[in-house]
Amino acid sequence: MTSPAIGRLRVDGATLHYEVRGKGPLLLLIPGGTGGAASYDGVADDLAADYTVASYDPRGMSRSPLDDPEARQRVEQHADDAFRLLELLSPGVPARVVGCSSGAIVALHLLTTHPGRIERVVAHEPPLVEVLPDVAEHRALLARVQDTLRREGPMPAAAVFAAGMRRPGADPVDAKAATELPPQAAARVARTMANMPYFLGRIVPSFMAYTPDVDRLKALSDRLVLAGGADSRGELPYRPAAFLAERFGTSFVHFPGGHTGLSTHPAEFGELLRKVLEIANVQAAS
Fold first, then answer.
1. Fewer C-beta within 10 Å: the chain N or C terminus?
2. Would residue 155 count as lying in a domain?
3. Residue 118 lies inside a defined structural domain of this protein
């Protein structure tokens, strides 16, 4: 794996840690969940053959400290962070953006607010529960997560959250697997666990209450690839992107694996991502 160039960017209320590999047009990778820049390590080197690949730790995560650790988190501010990275790394030139999970929510807001800076967005399973017809059920889930977090702490709350994300009757996640990882992957898991209280307490309630500008997204849907995991059909994070693709009359791309296919199937995920971006390149040149 190639060592990336490391940078620090001051933004409003935080300092972002970002990493850059390769040469070519900018491809900004926005992490989701408790992950940071390292969540894209499995695909970044291959993509760097054709792109300047940048990723980062979102504000408040891992190596991107907040000035005020108690500051309220908003999708709009996280999207502005991504915009500042675009301005730094690709000034005046439209970029390609990939977001997974909560990072996909950031990518969608970035598209609606700065469309002139975006060539293409790939949004993999953004958990936009507010667009779903059964949103009341999911609001109740989020309330249970917050209640569990207050009463019992982050790990029980994480279990409630994970159970709500899966299909009814799906097998639980194998917690033992985290103890059987190679050292580098185990270090990423350790960072992930350290980020869990912040993610559940600050990111989840704000991001999953976010309502996108659906009409604006539809008007920009020629620049948008909505995607989900081949193994996560019917699960909560999968459903909003599938719902929006049907509403917009656009295609829906299935990536290998489930919600975390980026981590569980990195080679196959990266190969398909490259193909999706190549299609965007051809369309941009035509």
1. C
2. no
3. yes
The alpha carbon dihedral of 188, 189, 194, 198 has a sign of positive
Any residues with CB less than 8 A from the CB of 49 and at least 6 apart, and which? 22
| Cα–Cα dist 209/80, whole Å | 18
pLDDT value at position 177? Answer: 36
- What pLDDT score does 187 carry? 57
pLDDT one-digit tens code per residue, 120-171:
999 999 999 999 999 999 999 999 999 999 999 999 999 999 999 986 555 4
174 in any annotated domain: no
Taking 70 as the pLDDT cut, the residues of the chain under it are 1, 167-190, 280-286
Task: Tell me if 178 is assigned to some domain.
Answer: no
Neighbours of 8 (CB within 10 A): 11
Both tokens of 39, joined, read 């969540």
Q: How many domains does the chain have?
A: 1
* Structural domain range at position 223: 5-133+210-285
Residue 283's identity, in one-letter code, is: Q
86-97: buried (b, 16+ CB within 10 Å) or exposed (e) per residue?
beebbeeebbbb
The pLDDT value recorded for residue 280 is 54
| CATH number of the structural domain spanning residue 269 | 3.40.50.1820
Number of H helices, E strands in the chain: 11, 8
